[in-house]
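As noted in the main text, all predictions were made from sequence alone. Below is one such record, for RagB/SusD family nutrient uptake outer membrane protein.
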Amino acid sequence: MKTFKIIYKKFLLVFITTILFSCSKDFLDEPQNTAGLPENVVFSDREIVQSFVTGIYDRYKGQWDNDLTDGVNNSSVDTGGLYAMYFARTVKGNDLIQAPSLFRFDYAHDNKQPTYRRTNFTWTFNYEIVNYANVLINGVENSPDLDEVTKKEFIAIGKVIRAFHYFQIALEFAPNYNNDRTVARIPIYTGPATGNAPSPLSDVYDLILSDLKAAIPDLSEERLGKSYINKSVANGILARVLLVTQDDWTLAASSAKAAYGGNASSAVVSTNWGNGFDELSDQDWLWGHFQNGISESNFYWLSPHSMTDHKGDGYSATFINTNFRDMFSDTDVRKLFEDLYNSSTAYREFVTNKFVFTFASDVPLMRKSEMVLIDAEAQYNLGNETGARNLLFALQQDRDPNATISTNSGSALMNEILLERRKELYGEIGVEWFDAKRLRLPINRDPEHRIVVNVPADSELFYLSIPQSEIDANPNMDASLNQ
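Prediction:
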């Protein structure tokens, strides 16, 4: 595959010469770039390997070009790393409404063709990080200088990173796992990219699950900061994957519990609500992007904060569906909506004050509250409806002092769990789109929307086309995949 040969060589060179920390013991709490070292040195010392990992995490919030092979920098706010991919999913639902601004094509479900920026960015971003993970795994495995304890730790980190990004690729470029596990659209690489043929979706998920299950026992809870993956985060990723495969609810429950700590009532406590939802130190946050507010002051790219905040120096581009707003009780701390513009235009009636944008705004990627809700869904599917209701109530009573425990059962209880996921996680990780795709549900928009698009269950609108550049460069990728 010419494209990936070029990308791999370029990434390896750039990664080793520009993205690593200097050989210093004075690591900052969160990722930053600095000078580089040659590859044979990178994997000779534990702290330099840690710098390599730090560089990978830093790329999560980079300003991304959608095609690294064309020699032209076409980066854009809506291709600003991991949070941009999540926000593109977010605006595809019914709960949030996007103005004719950035992410407007994602909002219209009209940004999935083979030459479009969303398609190219999502493929390039995730496969680049997969390549970094493979460089890490193979470099550590083959190092004659690292001790076995260090090797196990960093191989585990590499496998979690690889699994996480193959999970994103599978979500973005393939139908739902339980539609047809034989569909082949995604090449698998565990070493340098060489133009592999796409593998069946079942093989992709087998790799994801085997990587996570192999890695978790070798991970520690200790880490340099919450921008780094640790055992809890890895368990949280595994729990999310199992929401998609839906074939091991016992492991989904235990993984979620391991992520949130097992005590749901204490896990869900948060001080971020009403305070801008921008503080990584909040005990509810398991994983997120740290922004230092100084050298990272160029991050107008920061979704969701820069999109949803209508009072700060952002884009003021995202509005709230009135019907979603009405689902919150008046005593719910999450009811942070305002008729700011007194507009007669239906889609502009409400904005959310959940997120405040500053250059120091941190971005949530995973929270304990999400894990409690995953545990509740797992308990429901295990036939333990009482346990599911208790877990659901642990969150509800923290968010609303007037909440009462659910009396729902059967599908009504499941629907309540899904609604609570939307209320808790709106704007963050594209939860509405994720749940609709994995559960084979439609996305039907209310008339209040600027663009009313109804997406049937299992629609091709739930996944992107394979980039044309990939089809052109890889002889094992067939254009018929996009037909």
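The longest strand covers residues 285-289. The beta strands are 96-98, 184-187, 198-200, 285-289, 318-320, 337-338, 351-352, 363-367. These features were considered when defining construct boundaries for the mutagenesis experiments described in Section 2.9.
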